[in-house]
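ingest -> validate -> predict -> emit
validate: passed (alphabet ok, no gaps, 937 aa)
predict: started
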Amino acid sequence: MKLFWTLVLIVLYNGYSSEGVNSTHPARPKVVNIGCMLSFNSVVGKITKVAVEAAVEDINSNPDVLGGTKLNMITLDSNSSGFLGIVEAIRFMETDTVAIVGPQSSVIAHVVSNIANELQVPLLSFAATDPTLSSLQYPYFVRTSPSDMFQMAAIAGMINHFEWREVIAIYIDDDFGRNGIAALADQLAKRRCSISYKAAMKPEATLDDARDVLVQVALRESRIMVVHTYPSKGLEIFSMARSLGMTDNGYVWIATHWLSTILDTAGPLPPDKKENLEGAITLRIHTPRSELKQKFVSRWSNLTREAGVTGPSGMSTYALYAYDTLWLLAHAINEFFNQGGNVSFSKDPRLTEQNSGSLNLDSMSIFNGGKLLLDNIFKVNMTGVTGPYNFTPDKNLFHPAFEVINVVGTGFRKVGYWSEYSGLSIVPPEILYSKPPNRSSSNQQLHSIIWPGQTTEKPRGWVFPNNGRQLKIGVPNRASFREFVGKIPGTDSFRGYCIEVFTTAIDLLPYAVPYKLIAYGDGHNNPDDTELVRLITAGVFDAAIGDIAITTNRTKMVDFTQPYIECGLVVVAPVKQQNSNAWAFLRPFTPRMWCVTGVFFLIVGTVIWILEHRLNDDFRGPPSKQIVTVLWFSFSTLFTAHRENTVSTLGRIVLLIWLFVVLIINSSYTASLTSILTVQKLSSPITGIESLVNTKEPIGYQLGSFARNYLIQELRIDESRLVPLNLPEDYAKALKDGPSHGGVAAVVDERAYMELFLSSRCQFSILGQEFTKNGWGFAFPRDSPLAIDMSTAILKLSENGELQRIHDKWLSGIACTSQNTKLEVDRLQLKSFSGLFFICGLACFLALLIYFVMIACQYCQYHPNSESSGESSRSGRLQTFFSFVDEKEESVRSRSKRRQLEVTSVRSVDQDASINGSRIDRSEIYSNRVVSFGESV
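emit:
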């Protein structure tokens, strides 16, 4: 019926033309007409009627507000009917109305907004909270209270805060209910949550209708109920839910602000209705404390008594916003007049061109100043009983906020706040506005809540549905390694390590999980686990268990539980026993290590010889003896058996450092040789995945494993090199045959499989380290709460040791992993001792540098006249220097002393000759000195 009258009205509007009649008023008229549409028989209508009448009286009694102009408010009862709303709107337009306050219903607001748009009359509603009314379709609609978009954001914030993922929406199937729930779905989607089921009710639903809807709700798994309806219907829904046992422990009921309106206006509820609401959560629009609010609240009882209100008449936030709406309109009208606006109307040309018959539609006029008044409404910045009052560019109020109310005992308690600015908090929003916004999860807080069933423990939020449907769980029907997952022949049952982990974990859950294991695969070839996971997203399976590796592309499709076994990829290849032989003593070091060590023995021996040669008689003698001394001293230091003593300081320092290096080398050699001679060794030309990738030889992998894609996509191995293998026997045959006989050089597979494969095949071994870090887990649909609970159960199994017990039961008895057999490790490399050799070499270099500097200084001191004695050629000087270096230092020092004595004696003879006047030929004296020097030599 609403749609019919709307279409009729639109057709009539489009068919008539204007008569050009103007109705003009003075710039400041004595009276301005405004309309008010309410539903007098509703709880909200009764109290808001008192509030708007009080506001008009307060405005008219204060001449400063409108400069002497009075508001004439015409109040009509829409009786919650869209049709009557249209009729009332038409009646308002016949009385030169400049604005309409109301309606309180979103459904009626949708209809009346079309008339307001056509006649350019602002429509101000404090109770029509449908978010879609703010669209561009209704430019003359002004919402003067927070939109349901913010209320739904608050509910979504609570859902996310308590870590729930799915909710059930119970709502009235009209514009108000549908659009509100659509806003909730949008807000939940932002937080990776969703509405799992929408339980819609007819606006005129009976108790039987409510029962049928709630029975369907009870069959669903989610236990988070969001009720978005009208006050009269909401209490009926809670009453029916309690009769069905849906308000017990485990349920969560979240009601929109219709419930807080009842609690505020109706006063103490009867005990039976109060029990229905026990533990419920609701929202109330937050209005900060202020002196204006306190004065208005104190007047409320007198206002309701003077208005003759019967029945519930408590204060509600709707009354506060209704009061502020009239003041908002008064301020806008005053500014309208200040800007030169006048109250004038003109006929709608589209209404006058057609014969309206008895409808008298041509009596409706367009408000010429409607656009100017609308602009002034959105520009108003005032402080009312609800606090600061102004609009954002998208026509919503600044800083919308809600109080979170918990219904408990005989009343209710405030457990926190929600604001668009800072989210959930236990501090009033107006205090947080002075601080930077903080929406981090750690900052989202609420006080403790008493949930249905009088428990403070947060409900899990879901159970398995009671509709008798079992979970269809896919299990890979393997052809190999049945110790992990194996189907019992002739039955539909499964056994194995993975199956026992699953059944043990599911037994730890605090609720029953009906399920049925369904085989996936023919049992002759290993199935593709990735395809099994994909079938979960397609709805074929509700979950998948077994030896399913957790990989990146699989996590994009489903949610996995906590890994119950670590299982990365490894390389398995044939190995041969490395027995001891006559040359086993050479194995501890690599050839380069042997060469460098030998060279350093010679270098250190030579350095010690140089440092000791001029001082130590043990390092002097014929050349052949000195060569033998160097070689003997060098290698005897390995056993500290050298007979020669070191007397120079530099030589002792170098020897001390070298003996330390020899100690480390000797200890490492001894340990490695002991291991070689006492522990059985295995060797293979393949040392790990790196050496395998660098070859061109074929590589085996398990059929159906993710290893194939990993080798191709991640390691860039050519697909032609990969050989699929199905059974352990296929592994063994391919490895024994080798690449030369149609086999493979190595097999790449997960460690759990390979350890089981190697338990009875000692001729193969794992080479290198795991080159991936994977684990096995159970797969569930995205955002499945069962995945979280199963992860918790797996962690409990790990902590209490049960997981290890299951592992030992199915995977124990590894025969070829004895500690007496191990794969040959790398020989001692040069890089392991490079630091020691560097220190020793540096010490030798510095010692030689210091030594030659000292020798040069001595040479300059003891041979100052080498050039004057005729040895001026370079070769002669160099020969003299080497002769000096080879000479024993003691001889050099004694010769230097005799030379000084000779010089002293010559000087004394000269002095005597000059004193006695004798003339002695100096050449003779010098010749005598030379002869005497020669004789002494």
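The first strand starts at residue 22 and ends at 23.
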